């Protein structure tokens, strides 16, 4: 099939590359000419494991092409997938300006009957709205049908999640169009759920809100565990063994970030208010998350009395491991809170420093190795659970620090590792603080 994908961000690029991998001819379009120039050189503008290999493989095979020209890309497409951003507006609702522009762009350039697939996360009713918008701006006499096909990939595992998705949602009332989209995905061998567009749109928001709520729930329990002397890791494991609950997304920590959960929970809350039925569960989900992001700062403040002049080594900047994305990363709020309290922060991240500089700026210092960040530090904060932090030579870090104190915001250091390190104060989330003493 000949497919055009509008938007080469995390979703558009991963989708385009994977559709090419299963044999389709894919043209990816972006208005960002620098991104397109990078992609044409076989380089991925984003850090996403496995993406660049498939990009090179499928571009070389002639199945994957990049362009900044809507006219060129839409000339032969049977299926047009919209994967542009839908960020958050100031009042919490989804900002539809990019998808509106994408709709106008395609209305101007489609020259053949086609199926328009909305993959971007959009509020209920947007597929209907975009259909009218395209219709109103159509330049040529062509027929088009709309399909809602929300995306569930996670950053850091986008390729695996696309190739081995749990489900593909197809929201469309027209059987023929639905069949064609099922055919497009058939080689992936993933179960389909066929529904109407509004339910498809709601499935996406309800899924993200539920997962975010699960995280805030376990974070609330974690704080209570600390108060009553229980261990949230054991509590979550015990809960997760119940198949009705499941163990996924019960890792307590410093809250959720990223380009999706924060904005999607707020957008769903906005929709619920608009319809006169505010989902108060979401209000609590957001409130717990915002407080949780400052947990390590509060713990450090309690421990030291003041943070003025204290040196903090921060490990991890991206909102989760295996990505360089800084959107809504807890490290941003933590950096700002620490510096506002007079602390000096030196941060290390394996891949996110370039993006972090743009968001956090020079109020903190960036190091190119954990040991350099730790040098002379009063405390070590672990903010993102990169695999390399689990394997760190923690003793070597502690040996160059001024005080042997760790605040682990992701509960990612193993007790066995810590026990080998001599004297340490180790404060994690939802568990009693532990002081390991060196045996004389
Ligand atoms: N990032 C994720 O993990 C993820 C997962 C599932 C769903 N989503 C949703 O998918 C959508 C895209 O998210 P993303 O993270 O890939 O966004 P992104 O910001 O990384 O990329 C969007 C891209 O669209 C391009 N663009 C904007 N207007 C355009 C136009 N008119 N024509 C062509 N290109 C245009 C931008 O230049 C940008 O490169 C959002 O609705 C998001 O909520 C994201
Ligand atoms: O038990 C957990 C799991 C996750 N997180 C945090 O939650 C955030 C989001 O993590 P994750 O869901 O793995 O990453 P995303 O790439 O944001 O993916 C989410 O958002 C995407 C965009 O809508 C959806 O497609 C995915 O299904 C959904 O998981 C991160 O800050 C994590 O640190 C926790 O704190 N505890």
Mean pLDDT across all residues, rounded? 97
| Cross-sheet strand order for the largest sheet | 11-10-9-12-13-14-15
| Gyration radius, rounded | 24 Å
CATH superfamily of the largest domain: NAD(P)-binding Rossmann-like Domain
CATH structural class of the largest domain: Alpha Beta
- The rounded distance between the terminal residues' Cα atoms is 71 Å
Question: Helical percent range?
Answer: 40-55%
Hetero groups in this structure are: nicotinamide-adenine-dinucleotide, uridine-5'-diphosphate-glucose
Shape: elongated
What is the count of structural domains? 3
Tell me how many strands there are: 15
Structural class determined from secondary elements: alpha/beta
| Percent of sequence in beta strands | 5-15%
Major sheet description: 7 strands, mixed
By CATH, the topology of the largest domain is Rossmann fold
How many H/I helical runs?
19
Regions with pLDDT < 50 over 5+ consecutive residues?
A: none
Architecture of the largest domain in CATH?
A: 3-Layer(aba) Sandwich
Name a few traits of the molecule.
binds nicotinamide-adenine-dinucleotide, Rossmann fold, seven-stranded mixed β-sheet, 15 strands, 14% strand, 440 residues, alpha/beta, six-stranded parallel β-sheet, binds uridine-5'-diphosphate-glucose, elongated, single chain, N-(1-d-carboxylethyl)-l-norvaline Dehydrogenase, domain 2, 3 domains
Please provide a written account of the structure:
Helix 1 links the parallel strand 1 and strand 2. The protein is elongated and about 80 Å long. The protein is of the alpha/beta class and 440 residues long. The strands form three sheets. It has a seven-stranded mixed β-sheet. The protein folds into three domains: 194 residues, Rossmann fold (3-Layer(aba) Sandwich); 89 residues, N-(1-d-carboxylethyl)-l-norvaline Dehydrogenase, domain 2; 144 residues, Rossmann fold (3-Layer(aba) Sandwich). It is built from 19 helices and 15 strands. Helix 11 runs antiparallel to helix 12. Bound molecules: nicotinamide-adenine-dinucleotide (NAD) and uridine-5'-diphosphate-glucose. Uridine-5'-diphosphate-glucose (UPG) binds next to helix 9 and helix 11.
């Amino acid at each position: 099939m000949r497919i055009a994908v509008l938007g080469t961000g995390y979703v558009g690029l991963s989708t385009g590359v994977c559709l090419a991998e299963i044999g389709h001819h894919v043209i990816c379009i972006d208005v960002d000419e620098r991104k397109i120039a990078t992609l044409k050189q076989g380089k991925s503008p984003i850090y996403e494991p496995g993406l660049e290999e498939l990009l090179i493989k499928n571009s070389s095979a002639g199945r994957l092409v990049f362009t900044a020209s809507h006219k060129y890309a839409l000339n032969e497409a049977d299926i047009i997938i919209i994967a542009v951003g839908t960020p958050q507006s100031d009042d919490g609702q989804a900002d539809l300006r990019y998808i509106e522009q994408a709709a106008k762009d395609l209305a101007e350039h489609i020259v053949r009957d086609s199926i328009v697939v909305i993959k971007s996360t959009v509020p209920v009713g947007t597929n209907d709205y975009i259909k009218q918008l395209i219709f109103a701006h159509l330049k040529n006499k062509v027929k088009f049908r709309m399909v809602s096909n929300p995306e569930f990939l996670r950053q850091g595992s986008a390729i695996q999640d696309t190739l081995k998705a749990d489900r593909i949602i197809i929201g469309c009332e027209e059987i023929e169009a639905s069949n064609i989209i099922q055919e497009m995905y058939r080689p992936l061998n993933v179960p389909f759920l066929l529904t109407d567009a509004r339910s498809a749109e709601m499935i996406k928001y309800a899924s993200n809100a539920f997962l975010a709520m699960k995280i805030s729930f376990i974070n609330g329990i974690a704080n209570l565990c600390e108060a009553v002397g229980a261990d949230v890791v054991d509590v979550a494991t015990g809960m997760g063994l119940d198949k009705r609950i499941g163990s996924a997304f019960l890792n307590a920590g410093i809250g959720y970030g990223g380009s999706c959960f924060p904005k999607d929970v707020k957008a769903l809350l906005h929709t619920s208010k608009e319809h006169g039925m505010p989902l108060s569960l979401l209000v609590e989900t957001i409130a717990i998350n915002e407080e949780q992001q400052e947990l390590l700062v509060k713990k450090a403040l309690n421990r030291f009395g003041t943070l003025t002049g204290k040196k903090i080594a921060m490990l991890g900047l991206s909102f989760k491991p295996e990505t360089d994305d800084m959107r809504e990363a807890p490290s941003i709020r933590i950096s700002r809170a620490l510096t506002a309290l007079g602390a000096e922060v030196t941060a290390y991240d394996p891949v996110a420093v370039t993006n972090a500089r743009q968001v956090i700026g020079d109020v903190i210092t960036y190091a190119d190795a954990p040991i350099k960040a730790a040098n002379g530090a009063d405390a070590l904060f672990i903010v993102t659970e990169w695999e390399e932090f689990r394997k760190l030579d923690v003793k070597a870090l502690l040996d160059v620090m001024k005080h042997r104190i760790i605040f682990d915001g992701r509960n990612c250091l193993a007790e066995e590792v810590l026990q080998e390190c001599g004297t340490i104060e180790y404060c994690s989330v939802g568990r009693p603080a532990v002081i390991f003493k060196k045996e004389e």
